[in-house]
Amino acid sequence: MPVFDKITAAHDEMTAWRRDIHAQPELGFEETRTAEFVAHKLEQFGIEVTRDVGKTGVVGRLRAGNSPRSIGLRADMDCLPILEANSFAHRSKNPGKMHACGHDGHTTTLLGAAKYLAATKNFDGTVHFIFQPAEEGLGGAEAMIGDGLFDRFPCDVIFGMHNRPGLAVGKFQIRPGAMMAGGAFFDINVTGVGAHGARPEAGIDPVIVGAHIATALQTIVSRNVRPTDTAVVSVTQIHGGDAYNVIPEKAVLRGTARCFSELTMGVIGSRMTRIAEGIAEGFGAKAETNFRVLFPPLVNHADEVQFIADCAADIVGEANVNRNSNPVMASEDFAIMLKHVPGAYIQIGNGDGEGACEVHNPGYDFNDTALPFGASLFARLVEKRLDRLGAS
Ligand SMILES: [Zn+2]
Ligand SMILES: [Zn+2]
CB of 47 within 8 A of CB of 126? Predict the structure, then answer.
């Protein structure tokens, strides 16, 4: 495979970029150094660069030939607020910040493809290299789209990828339709009447109300969501009071909900509000629910799934591409881009042997041996989608 061979020749250089980014991680919307690193590299490759798209996002535009066809390739740049536990030389220099989700690897993978495509230009059309900020729950995709991403840089189709620990390097997996869950966070603020801990009849205990609400919320999945749908409602925090002998005035419950359709997410949000308000009312207390959807479910488009899986098979062989992988309960804000433009999101193996540490873990590190596979897939997508034979 000529693409893979040529990109593999730049493996050492990509590894150096990846470790440089890893050592200097930046949180969502603070990726100024990373964005400048990316923009500078793209400019060196001869790619037209637009900075500050959606705050710290960067878009590179590369044109070859005259075809009006276009393709978007997307990577994420932000890190997580985690204290890195690794001791290797490229560990984080920013205490409490860490590339624990492999976005350093995704950014490098797309840069590797950009370098190859700018040098070879073996395609006819326009490629948009989209480096988005703030994937980890802060709304980076939304910010770029709000800043006119797809009006200023129109894309017929868009593709992204995420590393998958536990999947061998050189393997890919994907599924058509809903592949990753939609995610919501919620706060339920319960207000009662404070009292002496020995005189409960003088107050309305928000702790008891909150406990009933936490229990009743478990009936949303068991009694309200269709049994054939998959959903999770987790109350992950309950806070109230700070003395042994005082019934507090307020308590708060917080948590997350995940599911694979917007309809189900709507059911969860409305049932949660009604259960919380109804239970509080029954006890003479008040409950206010703030249910906010952060990510819609990630829904892959069937044609683009087939296309990217075919491209992956061109590189690693059909036996290394799983076209019907299991859905995952984690969320991903590329889902928002897929609501605007047809496309697909694929998982790339980060290694299944020793050291196959999960993402969002202080011991995680992106596997540099995966870089040529990811960069080759991005490049193959362009050469196949914008092939010169199909040029008008
Ligand atoms: Zn993550
Ligand atoms: Zn991630």
Answer: no
Give residue-wise pLDDT tens across range 121-160. 999 999 999 999 999 989 999 999 999 999 999 999 999 9
CA 244/CA 224 separation, integer angstroms = 37
Separation of CA 77 and ligand 2 centre (Å)? 9
Q: How far is the CA of 9 from the centre of ligand 2 (A)?
A: 27
Q: What is the pTM of this model?
A: 0.91
Of the listed ranges 84-88, 233-237, 374-378, 387-391, the least confidently predicted one is 387-391
| Nearest-angstrom CA–CA distance, 357 and 289 | 36
Distance separating alpha carbons of residues 240 and 251, to the nearest angstrom: 4
Q: What is the dihedral of CA 305, 311, 314, 315, to 10 degrees?
A: -110
The rounded Å distance from CA 376 to ligand 2 centre is 20
* Residue 279 CA, ligand 1 centroid: distance in Å: 35
Pairwise CA distance, residues 22 & 253, whole Å: 35
| Residue 360 contacts residue 100 (beta carbons within 8 Å) | yes
Residue 355 has pLDDT above 70, yes or no: no
DSSP letters spanning 163-197: EETTS-TT-EE--SEEEE-EEEEEEEEEE-B-EET
**pLDDT digits over 65-123, tens only?**
999 999 999 999 999 999 999 999 999 999 999 999 999 999 999 999 999 999 999 99
How far apart are the CA of 334 and the centre of ligand 2, in A? 10
- Measure 147 CA to ligand 1 centroid, in angstroms: 23
Asked if 358 and 165 count as a contact pair (C-beta separation under 8 A), the reply is yes
* Closest listed residue to residue 71, CA positions, set 123, 4, 8, 5: 123
